[in-house]
Amino acid sequence: xxxxxxxxxxxxxxxxxxxxxxxxxxxxxxxxxxxxxxxxxxxxxxxxxxxxxxxxxxxxxxxxxxxxxxxxxxxxxxxxxxxxxxxxxxxxxxxxxxxxxxxxxxxxxxxxxxxxxxxxxxxxxxxxxxxxxxxxxxxxxxxxxxxxxxxxxxxxxxxxxxxxxxxxxxxxxxxxxxxxxxxxxxxxxxxxxxxxxxxxxxxxxxxxxxxxxxxxxxxxxxxxxxxxxxxxxxxxxxxxxxxxxxxxxxxxxxxxxxxxxxxxxxxxxxxxxxxxxxxxxxxxxxxxxxxxxxxxxxxxxxxxxxxxxxxxxxxxxxxxxxxxxxxxxxxxxxxxxxxxxxxxxxxxxxxxxxxxxxxxxxxxxxxxxxxxxxxxxxxxxxxxxxxxxxxxxxxxxxxxxxxxxxxxxxxxxxxxxxxxxx
Length: 422
Fold this sequence. Notes:
By secondary structure, this protein is mostly helical. The protein has helices at residues 21-25, 43-51, 60-74, 81-92, 97-111, 114-126, 134-146, 150-162, 170-182, 188-198, 206-218, 222-234, 242-254, 258-270, 274-289, 293-305, 313-325, 331-341, 347-359, 363-375, 383-395, 399-411. The protein starts with 20 loop residues before the first helix and ends in an 11-residue tail after the last helix.
């Protein structure tokens, strides 16, 4: 299944695409099943096939259809553990968190169902259906890890990466990702690629990042396939090849992945070719209509700044809110930017949204808060607080944060200037 969270294309600096962390990471859970040929047309098999085919939790239209199929299987009488699990998964991915988490807890506690236990951990991590509680989430993931779940090991690594309920520790994060990879989680390569691409606790190493991406892509992880395409689009390690990136993105879209549609649309809009721009905007709107949050964020930003479309801040706000409503962690800082640069400027509202985004690990939000303190945008100017926020983002390998820190040490008024640190 595809993952969005830490290793979405949006988490790749200038490359776009990724997740709330928990809602996005829950798609890591893969259940390999072989259904008897004779039962091929049964509601239970139809449910399992739809719910386990790797479609992102953000594709709300797909999951609404899947819920209809799985609900029929669930109500057919004496549903199996697997049918119940896939039904609860469909509920979760259509934002019916209370019922979903209650079902996952029942399966985990009464049937010893390990994937359900991991979902409970993600719900606790992100406050879906239960109050957000990092300590409980960590306890749940550790219990699942001890029972043999590679996905739980990956989740623990994410917690160490962001310092959620634990001391931030990039070495431990990387070791958990490596453990998850050894245990057979093909999604772990995406997180390792994120670390090496961003220089999170290690020197920036795009070649190693690409190696991990190709490994995950070879295992069928669509997010990794799209990242490889982004490398060709940007010319990272490999020669810049927009035509090859286009083929990769289009093939992904043709396989039914909305993320592939978004990547292709972004490529077309950025091409400045008038015909491709029109096609790209149509594809992006189609992805929005399918419930893809990254498309909402992308198109919202374009409306906010007038990038490839006529400037329309109110439409941007609608799109950002739509993404927030389906659990997209990246949309919080974009909503903050709306209140900074849109048609209803409100620095207090901007700070509220940005802090929420920062609490969810969004490095852009951290840098934007730093900028507000550095320039005194709607609040007292404070270079030291700005530095604190830049350093938080820098810990997560954000290049723009390092640049802002260098600028403070180069020409700051309160902070002692230092050519060496600059």
